[in-house]
Specification:
Length: about 100
């Protein structure tokens, strides 16, 4: 019975969940410490992840690299949105004592 169970979706779903979950605080911290000027780092990491995903033979690693790369690309947009959230006072600004 257990031989018929396919765990691939659960494993990749968990990896995707963890990757996205890690990028949320990473974007907040990056914007806080560096502002939006760090967006090229996310772009380079995203491109590297895409290229790596194309050439890795292991399907798990390939998919995880793909999720990682598109999480990097999405983080570029989130950096600029985070700047607006800070401007609105929803998150602390670097140097403020709040």
């Amino acid at each position: 019975m257990l031989d018929a169970i396919n765990y691939h979706g659960i494993i990749l779903g968990l990896a995707t969940f963890l990757c996205i979950g890690l990028f949320h605080p990473l974007v907040i911290k990056s914007e806080y410490h560096f502002g939006v000027k760090c967006w090229p780092v996310f772009l380079v990491l995203g491109i590297a992840g895409c290229v790596g995903s194309l050439f890795v033979q292991n399907i798990y690693i390939s998919v995880i690299l793909g999720v990682f790369s598109f999480s990097c690309f999405w983080s570029i947009l989130e950096l600029f949105q985070q700047r607006e959230r800070v401007r609105k006072g929803w998150f602390p600004k670097k140097g403020s004592k709040d």
